[in-house]
From TrEMBL:
Ranges that cross the membrane: none
Species of the source: Pararhodobacter marinus
Family annotation (Pfam families): adh_short_C2 (PF13561)
One GO biological process term: monocarboxylic acid metabolic process
Protein's recorded name: 3-hydroxybutyrate dehydrogenase
Example GO molecular function: 3-hydroxybutyrate dehydrogenase activity
SUPFAM superfamilies per the UniProt record, alphabetical: NAD(P)-binding Rossmann-fold domains (SSF51735)
């Protein structure tokens, strides 16, 4: 059980971040939800999660593209025992055409935010002699695809930074690992299915198998619950010596 532990999950109002937040709350952790908005719904999500699992859940707004807001998130939360760096965005374009502001935003949100939150969270973890840092990287932290220059660079960067974090934290009760999902059925991905069906004139099953999961040998999406379960495992005692590594949840993609 994670009772008495506080987890901060960045970008946790939807998709994988939400799945991880639910898994940690269900295991008894107090949770801090985060995104860059500050809506009624954001706070309602926190209240609902708290009521469902009988843990403390708060929502703290912080824009992960801004270094000082990354660090302020950790401070406002009062530090954390479990830090999940999950916030991320995507943009697809040829290198020659890749908009500079998109490049900068992806590097900031998908990579540099993990540096800032980790820097702010580590001293408190060292004081307690316990901590778990879980970076949500991607199969694109280990493999490349054309037109995803910024995303692939940022995710490879996160995998490298995870290893450095693990080395510096070794022997202090603090582990750092990266989860590398293949395609996960998040609302974002679900929303692309109807368009792809039209474009390719295929039914739902065929477009998923042949277009979307072209590189995922299992021909099945991973789920946000499965990523949550993987993150939860990294918080258990069984995972104490797992540090500085990547865990692929990709249906075999990176075995190829
Ligand atoms: P999503 O769009 O459903 O969720 C992204 C979350 O990040 C949202 O809560 C959003 O509000 C938040 N966010 C975006 N910009 C932010 C900012 N500037 N500051 C704070 N929060 C911000 O996407 P997802 O599919 O759940 O992706 C989550 C993470 O998992 C990302 O890092 C993504 O790269 C990674 N990932 C996703 C897949 C996939 O197939 N869905 C695969 C591999 C890795």
């Amino acid at each position: 059980t994670l009772s008495g532990r506080r987890a901060i999950v960045t970008g946790s109002t939807s998709g994988i971040g939400h799945g991880v937040a639910v898994a940690l709350a269900a295991a008894g952790a107090d949770v801090v939800l985060n995104s860059f908005t500050d809506t009624e719904d954001d706070h309602k999500q926190a209240a609902d999660l708290a009521a469902q699992y009988g843990v403390s859940v708060t929502y703290i707004k912080a824009d992960m593209s801004k270094p000082e807001e990354c660090r302020a998130l950790i401070e406002k939360a009062g530090g954390c025992d479990i830090l999940v760096n999950n916030a991320g965005i995507q943009h697809v374009a040829k290198i020659e055409d890749f908009p500079v502001e998109k490049w900068n935003a992806i590097i900031a949100i998908n990579m540099s935010s993990a540096f800032h939150t980790t820097a702010a969270a580590l001293p408190g973890m060292y004081d307690k002699g316990w901590g778990r840092i879980i970076n949500i990287a991607s199969a694109h932290g280990l493999r490349a695809s054309p037109y995803k220059g910024a995303y692939v660079a940022a995710k490879h960067g996160v995998v490298g930074f995870t290893k450095v974090t693990a080395l510096e934290a070794a022997g202090k009760g603090v582990t750092a690992n990266a989860i590398c999902p293949g395609y996960v059925l998040t609302p974002l991905v679900e929303a692309q299915i109807p368009d792809q069906m039209k474009t390719h004139d295929m039914d739902r099953e065929t477009v998923i198998r042949e277009v979307m999961l072209d590189r995922q040998p299992s021909k099945e999406f991973a789920t946000t619950e499965e990523i949550g379960g993987t993150a939860l495992f990294l918080c258990t005692d069984a995972a104490k010596q797992i540090t500085g590594t990547t865990i692929s949840v990709d249906g075999g993609w990176t075995a190829m």
